Structure prediction request, 154 residues.
Amino acid sequence: MEVDRLRRAYEEVLAEVDAGGFGPPPAGQLSAEQIVAHLAANDELMTEATEAVIAGSPFAYYDLETIHRPQVDALVAEHGGLDGLATLLRATSQKLCALAERLGPAAETPVDTHLREGFDLVVDDTLPWGRTLDLHTRVHLPKHLAQLRMLRAH
Prediction:
């Protein structure tokens, strides 16, 4: 598990959020606030899964936007804007990275994984948990970083 790479991916996203200046999203797309809330909500799901893996408990991981969309909207309302959401994401990402550092050989633990990132990534399979964290680092975070950058360009 490349925890340093995971930390760097979060740092890039948070630097983009801190830069601000986002415009409204295109129709049907997430706003900057919703993207950050989605990432924080997803971190919480990944933290639960990582804690279960470390404890040796069975766990299934679902990152389907429709499952936690109400949670995303509630987080946006609860944290009152981008600054509050950025603080939340800093906390959730730090916790996830700290847990990932503790995984060791448990990173090979198979976890029933369900995730969908548009057409770019669809997983409905059992994967070693470290592989799921790697997909989060290499695909999920960069995709949302690109979305944030596009929101600034509009």
